[in-house]
């Protein structure tokens, strides 16, 4: 409480000409003000665009607890380690190259020091946890379970869908009957049939559980998962993509040409360069899982010389599969991943235990041990 009084004495003269400062909470006598929260909101907004104010307060509380406990244990983070971790945060979170980080920070007006401070507390917590669990080892059973889970195949579902407001659900049953009676059914405007391809493993549980049971050609009754809209879905195709292929690196050739009498059956990787001038041919490598769903369907059988045709008016983009390079699961990388997940779980438990011994005062609430 003494620290709060000191803070109030320091800031009191400025309240007459600046934003009023309010103490929102204090942890073991360390105050958290509305300005601390506003500063963190600004940081999170610049990074992700959205935030939860209640969670921000809890994060700030946790950081004070971590700082107090790690100071007692004399745990420190070197500046070089912290700076490297912050840069890696941008690389992994936003898919940037290391040399692009500074530009990204400037363009998005991100407070580097504020972010570094936040990340520092995460590092301190994990370092404290590692100190308490120095012999944490990944078991063979853990390794096998995660490997099996990771190596599950993906399923791509090509479907047609009619979406209408929920209040028109009764009308939708009539559309279902007409569609089932006539596979070439076209609804009257303004109702439209939309085509899309979905990755079954990336859908929410309820929708996934519905689609996984359907066969090609099946047409559903109205599905109302969203409270505002319902859907009628027709399954056009279901394609299985094995884990090995999904994580393989594909060598592709691409060219954009005028739609003409090109005989695609005679095109191979060997003569692909004859379609256009050398400077118009693009060669690149990409992981199968990074392709859009439409291209994944085309290349799902792993056939060399398979060609994808993307039509846009009288312009055609041709993409041919020329080579597949497998990327087997790296056991050491997998162990590191599991170890990291275990460390995060242990750190969460450690933080919960530290909170139980911390004195946390919320504004207008009694002093509590949380």
Automatic annotation (TrEMBL):
<keyword id="KW-0697">Rotamase</keyword>
<dbReference type="GO" id="GO:0003755">
    <property type="term" value="F:peptidyl-prolyl cis-trans isomerase activity"/>
</dbReference>
<dbReference type="InterPro" id="IPR050245">
    <property type="entry name" value="PrsA_foldase"/>
</dbReference>
<keyword id="KW-0413">Isomerase</keyword>
<dbReference type="InterPro" id="IPR027304">
    <property type="entry name" value="Trigger_fact/SurA_dom_sf"/>
</dbReference>
<protein>
    <recommendedName>
        <fullName>peptidylprolyl isomerase</fullName>
        <ecNumber>5.2.1.8</ecNumber>
    </recommendedName>
</protein>
